[in-house]
Structure formats: C-alpha cells, structure tokens
Amino acid sequence: xxxxxxxxxxxxxxxxxxxxxxxxxxxxxxxxxxxxxxxxxxxxxxxxxxxxxxxxxxxxxxxxxxxxxxxxxxxxxxxxxxxxxxxxxxxxxxxxxxxxxxxxxxxxxxxxxxxxxxxxxxxxxxxxxxxxxxxxxxxxxxxxxxxxxxxxxxxxxxxxxxxxxxxxxxxxxxxxxxxxxxxxxxxxxxxxxxxxxxxxxxxxxxxxxxxxxxxxxxxxxxxxxxxxxxxxxxxxxxxxxxxxxxxxxxxxxxxxx
Length: 257
Known about the structure:
alpha/beta
C-alpha cells in the first residue's frame, strides 16, 4: 500500500532533473553530552573530536573526509534562541528535544549539491515549499547555504553548498581534524512504515534514479537503506573496511554493512 504523503514519481528522475551532483555530506546525531558521545565514538573505532560551545550550541564530528557525522547538542537555550541557527532549526526543535530526552538519536542528514540555489528553484517548481538560508560567521572565510524542504518526513534531508568548495575547505581548514580511522561509512538505515514509497520519494527529491520497487537509494558517499518499521527515523550507521563494530552510541546503532 502506498503512503499518500510520499507519492511515487510518474516518470524516472533522470528524465526530469538537471545534474546537481548530489552526494552525502553529513548526518546529524543529537546527543545530551558531546564530550561523552565523542568518547563513545572513539572507543568504537570511529575517531571523533569535540568543538568548543558557540552561541548556545556545541558540536563535534567523526570526520571521514568531506563527509562527516555531526555530533551535536544545545548547551544554553537562551543564548541559542538568539543565534542565527535557532530560526533555521525551529521546525526541528520538537524532534531535537525528544531525541535529547531519550538519550540521543539521529535527526536527519545533509546532501551536498553543486548549486543549492538551483536545487531550491527546481524543488519549488516541483511544488515543494523550500526555505533557502545563508550562514556566514563573522571573520570566517567559510560560508554555506542550506535548502530546507517543509512538510517532509522527519528524516528528510536538507541540501547544502559551501563557499569555497567543500574540498577546498577540507584541504585548507579541516585537514587536521580528518581522522577516519579503520572504518568507512557505507550508508545508513531509515526505518519507515513504507520503505518503497519512502525510497521513491527520496529518489524524486534528489534526482537519483531508483529501480522500481527498490528500497536502497544509491546516494554517492552513503547509500540510504529503507527498512520497514514504525520509527520513521534514521536508526543505524552501516560501516565497511576492517572489522566494523556492532554497538549503539546515544540512540544510534552502528554495525557492519
């Protein structure tokens, strides 16, 4: 049975959408304590680091290359409320609060595209309500734009483009923080009531072709695996290389592909 909020595409995505070079950028993992989560990631063989708090927000990451898993929390809600991030994350806050109260879990993920403004226009033409936001920190040489789709499933991605290009950022500003460790991220699992409809919806949203009836979207950088269940959220990181661990870090399972 098809989920009415996730219609399957009438035509194949590759015949409709311009090439936007979509690829996995990062996944957001909400945790009560960034330092503790970073220690748990590192103990599992996924070397992570923590950044200092900023504007009531704190994050860290397991950074593989240009891709990363962002480990995040709120440290001062009053300060955060006055930050530029608060407005952007307003629709996410009920889920963030629920995840933090439950000891953590994955929120959603970001897809890197060549030109997020062009992606925004394409999605708007397709009937989506999309908010395009620009983030530029004073004194920083790096800025980025994010496109957020309203009325989407709770696990749905947002789209991102960096200035300068993220590979330049990686080489010039982030190289010292890249430490993949022995394992690689192959993909992640989204548990949803209708995996086929969800996979088809994400295929249409991203423009990545998906064979009819398939439930694994081949997103470059991290394939998206849909599995049946009531959670309607990202549940698991799928790892390859060496001998990946099987564990859980603050509500997010980790296991071999």
